[in-house]
Each structure stands twice: as structure tokens, then as C-alpha cells.
Design a protein that fits this description.
The complex is a heterodimer of chains A (547) and B (241).
Chain A: H1 5-12, E1 16-20, H2 24-37, E2 41-45, H3 48-57, E3 62-66, H4 75-84, E4 93-98, E5 116-119, H5 124-140, H6 142-149, H7 153-165, H8 171-184, H9 188-201, H10 205-217, H11 221-233, H12 240-251, H13 255-268, H14 273-285, H15 289-303, H16 311-326, H17 335-348, H18 353-369, H19 373-389, H20 395-407, H21 411-424, H22 429-438, H23 445-463, H24 467-480, H25 485-502, H26 506-519, H27 529-545
Chain B: H1 9-45, H2 51-81, E1 89-93, H3 94-104, H4 106-111, E2 115-119, E3 125-129, H5 130-147, E4 151-159, E5 162-169, H6 176-183, H7 198-209, E6 211-212, E7 215-216, E8 218-224, E9 233-240
Classes of the chains: A mainly alpha (547), B alpha+beta (241).
């Protein structure tokens, strides 16, 4: 069933193509070549914007894109955007034309890889041979790819198995598609098996990445970590593996490790906006304000006049600065930066009253963090009225309000607001997590359960006198819920016990004092008050006894 | 990619130089691409009426290919030296791959009246860095086009866990000095001998960085005796795990 030259021409006669190149002579030359092969219709685009626009209008079968398109989006970024927007079918082919070895090109994810790379210079004969190879392959696997386009993974898997049984040259391609289909169907044990089978023969990048992701989904974190470690060592430029690795580290409780990995990925590809946001969140957890702030600023720059742009990115920057103030000896020093950022967002969205209101709420919080409670309270009183009159109040706006109440010491108002939010958004994990981060006690279902689990583990450790382990456990949990009263109290207890047994270090005293300050506002009728008082006395004695 | 991300001033300087090198190569390759395409057009038009002119054009084309190969070596060796060269190993359809390499030099073969035959199972697949191995095969093909008598035979098969590609010509064979030099592990490039054999040096490096489990790639040169079917000649062998 060999495909003849005539068959190939027949295939081309039904195809449409797009050529993306910034260099007019190249564009014309490639276009003529494609027409010579018999392609029905050939369009051209000068840059990424034009290319994406044309792809939205026409579903091209063949896309040839130069990697280097001057200052514009490069060929890889175009491909990622097309795939992200689902405007490139699995049955279509995307060939990247490059000037040098493909290894320099980072790619965001496995599925963002082009079907093939063609290196310059090439003659018509070479392009023809290469394109024939791909067109024939796409034709041979058309049914499978078309099932994947329709999300009919079961049929795609069955067709892959049929093709694999033929043991022809497409065998490995089919294993790759099959592994991907199992993964998309969330049948991770099966996808793992497919990838392991391939890897028994030799190390292949796509199979290793697939295996790592399957292991992660199966919660086999150590094995997944080893797989990704090896890929990173081998210089794999698929950035998805860094995101996976950071997620593993985070799930293992190693937030510092997660930050390190993301910083490396950001160095390799500085322009991925979502990764920058994740890095900012993680660095905040690590209290690495410099990195967090830098990433927030980068997010704003990247988002500028793109589909990702939103006032929230500006607010995030101010919240980061504000948190830094909470932990700083000189909070006033950051006031100017915070105010400038707020001014910018107000100017940018000057016709949006919600943005103005939210800016003022955040500003009141910033003022409170400088220590000027009176000024902050004055600001709040000017806000309350407007807040009442606002009809649609986004969750984030109310979270900011709760944070501001808390910062000026109005814990009742803060908790009331948060409880209401927890009720309204009980099915929204993101909002629930944010509530628990501000609140003194966990308010979301998940947070409550976690607190119970943590307390139980903590009790066991206390019973076994494993105080240093308990200290570690509560410190880690406090990174997620810094204000949680129970956690702070338990941490104090663990520290006091450890210091009484082993002698106090300066760092431990410092940590214990920080926890004490977090609890300073609890009322005398609070159920934890008595224990808190006793621990304070112990801490005082330990401080006095310390050298 | 550099594995060491510690940034001191020297690595930063070398990254800059690497960028400069890469963008120069990009420009030169654009120009070469246009040059080759235009040459192909002109040569096609004049194919029958002026053989002498066609020969001149083809010399031009052969030299353009050599410039391109030299560029690949230059950048590749620079990267190798700086630990920046890493492999992009993927599954390759060997028959298609070899056909492409022959096609890229077809004009050169035509002008020298060389017939190239390809002996490879269409279902044979291999695992290697296509771009780098294309450089190896191309270098040998261009060389053979110059030195062979009438034919070049390209054969590929899989045995003992290795993919073996033989490129056999029916010319004078490889000089013993080159064969010996290739087998001498301690050799260096002799810049005074006129021919640096940079291509072979590069090919050897590229073959050697291909590995799977504990097997490594190699290249070999040999001369083969005449048989009933084939004349004697030189044989280049590339083995990849």
C-alpha cells in the first residue's frame, strides 16, 4: 500500500496552507514551492498577530512558520497561542523553520511542540520530501487525530492499538498518542504503563515527561520527582516539567525548593505570565518579598494591553508590598511604592468605581501597616458608605476589606465579613483558601478539616515528646494560615517545651515572640486565653534566663 | 543548555557571544537559503542548453553547501566546547531521512553523473538528533560526489542494537593517513596540512555523544575490495545506538 507521487499530489490538492515569515522574499519563495507541490490555496502572514487572525478565520491544514520573526512573537509563541485557543486541529500540521539546532527553543508544554522542525537553508526538493513525509503521516493517522479533536479518546485509543498491531513505522507515534489519550481520560495507571513500556527500550523525552506527569497524578511524588530531576539534568527545555517539579516540592512541603525551581524556569522563559504569578505567590509564602515584588511587576508589564490585563495584577503588587510592611522594621519606607502603584491603577481604570473603591480599601490597609491606625480608620469611614451602595461586590474586594479591618484591629468586623464570605463561597476553593489565610481560625470546610488533622498530628508528636518535629509541622502550616490562633498557640507550646528541655536559642525566642504577637489581640473570654497567658509567662522566664 | 546557572561575569560574556553567534548564523542562513533557491531556479532553466554554464552553477551550489556545513560545524563545536550542545534525540524514519539528504545534494550528483542508490527498509526507524546527523551525512555525500567514479550506495540497517549507515563510493578509496588519523584517539586538528578534516572531527564528536544505556555512536572509514557486482571504493560507516 505504498503511496505514490500521484497520491501525494492528490492529497495536496485538498490542502490549504499558511506561510508565516517576516522576510518577504522567503515568504514568496516558500509560497511558490507549496503551489508547485499542488497545494490548493496558500496564504501568508508577516507576523504573529496576522497569523493568529488568519487562523481564527481559516482552519489551515499546513502551517509553515519561521521561528525568528524579528521583535515580534516567535513561531513557538504563535503555536502555543493557537493550541491554547484550540484554533489548531490535531489533524493539521505545524512545521517550524529554524536557522539552527532546535535545542535552543524552550517550549511551554509537550503538546506545544511543532510536528517538525526544518532547518535553513533548504531547497524545494528538501521541503517537498519533508512535507510529503508529514502529510503522509497525518493522512495515515487521520482517523486517530480526528477522534482526538472530537475528544473521543476511547475510539482514538482503540485505533492506536490497531495501528500498533501493524508494527509499521508509526508504531511509536501511536504509543505517544495513546499515552496522551489515557492521560486526558484521567486513566493515569494506563498512561503510566504506556510510557514505562517505551522507556524500557530507551530514554525518550516525551515518554519521560508523560511518565512524570502520570506519576504525579497518581500521587507517587518521589518517583515523579526522580523522573523530572533526570529530565532537568539532561537539559530538557520543556518548561512544563519545572511547573510540575515546583508543584511536587510544594506538595511535599518544600516551598523554598518550589521557589528555586520556578526561578530557574522563569530565567529560561521570562515571558510566561502565569508562571510569573505562581512564582510571586510562592515567594510570598517564603517571605521572599524582593522576588515576589519583581514577579508581580513583571506580570503587570507582560499583561499590559494583552488579553490577560486586569486591575487585579496591580492590586496584587500592592498587597505584596503591604505584606512586606507587616514583616518589616521600617514599614514607612515602602509607602511611596505602594501609593504609586495604587495611583497607576486608578488612573488606568478611571471610569471604574469598583476599582477606585478597592484601591481605597487597600490603601487603608497600607496606612494601617505603617502604624498610623487613626489615619487608616478615617479612611475606612469614608469607604464604608460607598461599600454599602455598591451592588456587586467581588469576593476579592470583600477579602481586602476584611484584611483592612483586621489591620486596624477591628477583629469582629473582619471575622463577620469572612464568615459571610466562607458561607457564600463554600464551594470555591480559591476563595476559601484566601479566607483562611486572613482569618484567625479556619472558616472553610477544607481549612477546618486541615486544622483538625494538624492538631491530631501535633498531639501525637507532643505525646512522643517530638517537639522539634511539632515545631516544623506548625511552622509549615502557618505559612498557609499565618493568623490561625490555634496554630500559633500550638507553635508557642511546642517552642516553650523544646526550649525548656534543650535550652533556648535566639531564633526560637524570636519565633515564639512572633507567634505571641499574632495572638496579642485575643479577648480575655477567648477559650484559648488562659493557655495563652500561661505560655506568655513561660516565654518571659525563658527570655530572662537566656544568655 | 548550560547546566550551571551560577552567573559570574565570564558566563555572562559567553552567553552574549553565543547570542551574537546565533543571530549571525541566522542571517547568513537566510542569505544562503535565498542563494540556493535562486541557483536551483536558474539551473533548472538552463539545464539542457548550456552544460558548461550548468557546471559552473553547480560548483557554486556545492560551495554554498560547504559554507552551510562549515557554519554548522563552527556553531556546533563552539557549543560542544562550552557544554551548550545537547542532543535533541527523537525517532526518525531512516529511509525518509536519507532520501532527504540525497535530495538536498541531487544537483551535485547530476552534474557529476553520479548515480545514488538507497537501500533501506521504509519502516526502519532510528533515534538520533536529526539536524546534527544530517550534517554528518551531508558532509560525506558532498565529499563522495567529488571523489567517486560513478555510483554512491547508501545502505542502512539495524543490528545488535545499532543503526548502521554505510555510504560507499567507487572511487580511489580513503587515503590511509586519514583512516589512521581517525583511529588515533589523541589526534588533534592539524591546521597546517591544508585540509583540516574538520568535518570528520565534528562527525566523530557528534556520533560519540549519541548514547543509549551503555552503547555509544561511532564513525569508521574503510576501503573495500571489488566484488562481482561492485567496484572497489571507500566506505564511510556511521553507527548509532
Amino acid at each position: 500500500m505504498a503511496i505514490t507521487r500521484l497520491d501525494v499530489i492528490k492529497i495536496y490538492k485538498q490542502k490549504t496552507a499558511l506561510v508565516i515569515d517576516d522576510y518577504p522574499d522567503m515568504r514568496g519563495s516558500i509560497r511558490r514551492m507549496l503551489e508547485n507541490f499542488g497545494v490548493k490555496h496558500v496564504d501568508t502572514a508577516v507576523n504573529g498577530e496576522e497569523a493568529i487572525e488568519k487562523c481564527d478565520e481559516t482552519a489551515y491544514d499546513i502551517i509553515l512558520a519561521d521561528y525568528n520573526l524579528g521583535d515580534n512573537k516567535n513561531g513557538q509563541q504563535i503555536l502555543e497561542e493557537l493550541r491554547f485557543k484550540n484554533s489548531l486541529k490535531q489533524t493539521s500540521l505545524y512545521m517550524m523553520i529554524t536557522a539552527e539546532t532546535t535545542k535552543d527553543m524552550v517550549f511551554g508544554a509537550l503538546e506545544y511542540q511543532p510536528d517538525d522542525y526544518l532547518t535553513k537553508p533548504f531547497t524545494q526538493a528538501v521541503l517537498e520530501k519533508r512535507l510529503n513525509r508529514l502529510v503522509i503521516e497525518k493522512e495515515a493517522l487521520y482517523e486517530i487525530n480526528s477522534c482526538i479533536d472530537r475528544l473521543d479518546f476511547d475510539r482514538a485509543i482503540a485505533l492506536c492499538q490497531q495501528r500498533i498491531n501493524m508494527h509499521d513505522k508509526y508504531e511509536q507515534r501511536c504509543y505517544r498518542l495513546m499515552g496522551n489519550c489515557f492521560f486526558k481520560k484521567h486513566q493515569f495507571a494506563q498512561s503510566k504503563k504506556v510510557y514505562q513500556g517505551i522507556l524500557e527500550e530507551r530514554d525518550i523525552e516525551w515518554a519521560s515527561i508523560g511518565l512524570g506527569k502520570s506519576l504525579m497524578a497518581l500521587n507517587e511524588l518521589d518517583e515523579a520527582e526522580a523522573t523530572f530531576d533526570k529530565l532537568i539534568d539532561n537539559g530538557c527545555l520543556c518548561l512544563e516539567i519545572y511547573d510540575c517539579m515546583a508543584d511536587i516540592k510544594r506538595r511535599q512541603g518544600d516551598v523554598a525548593g518550589a521557589q528555586k525551581i520556578l526561578e530557574k524556569a522563569v530565567e529560561l522563559s521570562p515571558n510566561a505570565i502565569m508562571r510569573q504569578e505562581t512564582l510571586a505567590d510562592i515567594s510570598e509564602e517564603n517571605h521572599d518579598w524582593a522576588v515576589a515584588e519583581k514577579s508581580r511587576k513583571k506580570v503587570i508589564r507582560l499583561g499590559n494591553s494583552s488579553v490577560y490585563e486586569s486591575p487585579e495584577q496591580h492590586f496584587q503588587l500592592v498587597r505584596t508590598i503591604s505584606k512586606e510592611m507587616e514583616h518589616s522594621d521600617d514599614p514607612k519606607g515602602r509607602l511611596k511604592d505602594a501609593n504609586e502603584a495604587l495611583k497607576r491603577v486608578k488612573r488606568k481604570y478611571k471610569d471604574d468605581p469598583t476599582v477606585e473603591l478597592q484601591s481605597d480599601i487597600i490603601e487603608a490597609n497600607v496606612i494601617a501597616n505603617t502604624g498610623d491606625i487613626a489615619a487608616s480608620e478615617k479612611k475606612i469611614s469614608s469607604i464604608q458608605d460607598r461599600l454599602e451602595k455598591t451592588i456587586t461586590k467581588p469576593a476579592q474586594l470583600l477579602l481586602d476589606m476584611a484584611q483592612t479591618y483586621k489591620s486596624v484591629g477591628d477583629h469582629d468586623k473582619s471575622q463577620t465579613l469572612l464568615k459571610k464570605l466562607a458561607d457564600t463561597y463554600k464551594d470555591n476553593e480559591e476563595v476559601s483558601d484566601a479566607i483562611d489565610r486572613i482569618s484567625d481560625e479556619p472558616l472553610s470546610q477544607k481549612g477546618k478539616q486541615q486544622a483538625i488533622d494538624l492538631n491530631n498530628t501535633g498531639k501525637e508528636l507532643f505525646a512522643q515528646k517530638e517537639y522539634s518535629k511539632a515545631i516544623k509541622l506548625f511552622s509549615q502550616a502557618l505559612r498557609h494560615y499565618p493568623n490561625n490562633a490555634g496554630l500559633n498557640l500550638n507553635l508557642m507550646l511546642a517552642l516553650v517545651r523544646e526550649m525548656s528541655a534543650q535550652g533556648a536559642t535566639e531564633e526560637q525566642l524570636h519565633q515564639c515572640t512572633a507567634a505571641k504577637q499574632k495572638l496579642a489581640h485575643i479577648a480575655t473570654d477567648h477559650p484559648m486565653y488562659d493557655r495563652y497567658k500561661i505560655l506568655c509567662d513561660h516565654l518571659n522566664k525563658l527570655s530572662l534566663a537566656a544568655p | 543548555m548550560q547546566k550551571d546557572h551560577s552567573s559570574n561575569s565570564t558566563t555572562e560574556a559567553s552567553i552574549d557571544f553565543s547570542m551574537l553567534l546565533a543571530s549571525s548564523v541566522h542571517d547568513i542562513k537566510n542569505s544562503l537559503s535565498m542563494l540556493l533557491t535562486s541557483l536551483d531556479d536558474v539551473i533548472d532553466i538552463n539545464a539542457d542548453d548550456n552544460p558548461q554554464q550548468r557546471k559552473n552553477y553547480s560548483t557554486l551550489r556545492g560551495e554554498a553547501s560547504r559554507i552551510n556545513n562549515a557554519l554548522i560545524y563552527l556553531l556546533g563545536l563552539y557549543r560542544l566546547e562550552n557544554d551548550q550542545l545537547s542532543l535533541n534525540v527523537a525517532e526518525v524514519y531512516v529511509a525518509d531521512f536519507l532520501e532527504e539528504q540525497v535530495a538536498s545534494q541531487q544537483l551535485l550528483f547530476d552534474i557529476n553523473n553520479v548515480v545514488v542508490t538507497l537501500d533501506c527498509n521504509p519502516d526502519l526507524t532510528g533515534f538520533f538528533d536529526e539536524h546534527l546527523v544530517a550534517g554528518i551525512v551531508n558532509n560525506i555525500l558532498v565529499n563522495c560526489a567529488k571523489y567517486t567514479n560513478k555510483t554512491i550506495r547508501v545502505q542502512a540497517q539495524k543490528s545488535n542494537g545499532f543503526l548502521t549507515v554505510n555510504i560507499i563510493d567507487d572511487g580511489q578509496g580513503y587515503p590511509q593517513s586519514i583512516i589512521d588519523n581517525l583511529n588515533n584517539k589523541d589526534r588533534s586538528i592539524d591546521f597546517n596540512s591544508g585540509s583540516t578534516n574538520l568535518g570528520l572531527f565534528f562527525s566523530q564528536k557528534i556520533a560519540a555523544i549519541h548514547h543509549c544505556k551503555d552503547k555509544y555512536g561511532t564513525i569508521q572509514l574503510s576501503n573495500i575490495e571489488a566484488t562481482a557486482d561492485y567496484a572497489s571504493g571507500g566506505c564511510f560507516t556511521l553507527q548509532l545506538p
